[in-house]
Each structure stands twice: as C-alpha cells, then as structure tokens.
Design goal:
Helix content: over 70%
Order of helices and strands: HHHHHHHHHH
Number of helices: 10
Number of strands: 0
Shape: elongated
Largest sheet: none
Radius of gyration: 20 Å
Structural class: mainly alpha
Length: 203
C-alpha cells in the first residue's frame, strides 16, 4: 500500500492532537519550519487534508493559539482563585505571563498570529481580542480583590491592569526575541519592584 493510500484509509487524528503536534513542532523546530506538509507527516495526514480541516495556515496558527491559551487559562484560574495572599497570586500571574526565554513557543506563536493580524478578517480579530480580554479580566478581578481586602492601595483596577499588561508585553517581547541583555529573572524583578512601588499601602 502506498503512503498516500494509507493516509486516505487512516482516520484523521482528533483535532486536539493536531493542535498539540503543531505546538510541539514550534517548540522543537521553530515557526519557520512549520509547514502543512511537515505537520501532515508528523500526524499522518496530507497537507490537503489539513487544509480541508483548517483552511489556511493562519487559521491553524490561530486555533493552536486558542488551544494553548485554553490550557494557560485553566492554569491561571487555579492560581488566581486558590485563595491566599493577593500579592502572592499577582506575582504568580506575572510569572505565568512572562515568557520562559528566547523563542518561547507560546509567545513565538502569539507574535506570529499578532503579526498576521494586520490582514486578518473580523472573525480572527474578535477571537484574538477574546484571548487578550481573558488575561485582562482576570487581572482586573485580582486587583479589585486585593484593594477590597486592603492588600493594595486604592487604584483604578482597569486602568492599572492596562498599564501593567503594557509593561509585561514590552518586557516579554524583549525576552522572546532574545534582545541582548534581557534576562527573564531581571524582568520579573523589575515588574515586582514596580508593583511594590505602585500598590504598597502608605502608613
């Protein structure tokens, strides 16, 4: 039996398996090596079969990002709703947000989707906004809780969250592109110092 015939007779893997394989390929080989043909060989599907299920590479990348964000969102939910000191949970949020290092696969994927969004349709833009919105809402809720419990000084949670995420995005971009002299541990220290200065209650 030829490889093409085998692929025709073999059931397609579950969609989540394809998305997981996409993320694994990005982690192992980088985005530049990710093609529908290479992914098809990895999951036992033809590039045409992948195109039938996902349409375009842009759609495959966005769905993979949504899948990865779903997993991160579940982890973020466990961190933020576990009770305890709001500041400790805020530090955990920062730690989860900031990339692990140069070419972090999740952040590399996010930057690629972000870059392609210049030509994205309205549906893709709405879906990207939903990802951003989830991070923002969770941060606003955590800040509001910390303020209500007296752990943070009174600030506007929405405005503060917008500024904090802009700071995190700027630092994270420097980490993931490998900007010389940008080290994850130093970035986290910078952010925590900013939080100390901005949220500490005055006596």
């Amino acid at each position: 039996m030829t490889d093409s015939a085998a692929r025709r007779r073999t059931p397609a893997p579950p969609r989540e398996d394809v998305l997981a394989a996409t993320m694994a390929m990005i982690a192992e080989r980088g985005l530049e090596k990710l093609t529908l043909a290479a992914l098809g060989r990895q999951v036992g599907m033809s590039s045409g079969h992948l195109a039938y299920h996902f349409g375009t590479k842009d759609e495959l990348l966005l769905r993979t990002l949504e899948w990865s964000e779903g997993r991160l969102g579940a982890e973020r939910g466990r961190l933020l709703t576990g009770g305890g000191d709001p500041r400790a949970r805020l530090d955990a949020y920062v730690d989860l947000y900031v990339p692990d290092g140069h070419r972090d696969p999740h952040w590399s994927l996010w930057l690629e989707v972000w870059n392609r969004s210049q030509n994205a349709d309205e549906d893709a833009r709405v879906r990207q906004s939903a990802i951003e919105g989830a991070w923002h809402r969770d941060l606003v809720a955590l800040l509001a809780e910390g303020i209500s419990r007296g752990a943070f000084r009174p600030v506007d949670p929405d405005r503060f969250a917008t500024r904090l995420r802009a700071l995190l995005d700027g630092f994270s971009l420097q980490i993931v592109i490998g900007l010389r002299g940008t080290v994850r541990e130093q970035v986290v220290d910078h952010v925590r110092e900013f939080l100390d200065e901005s949220l500490a209650r005055t006596v």
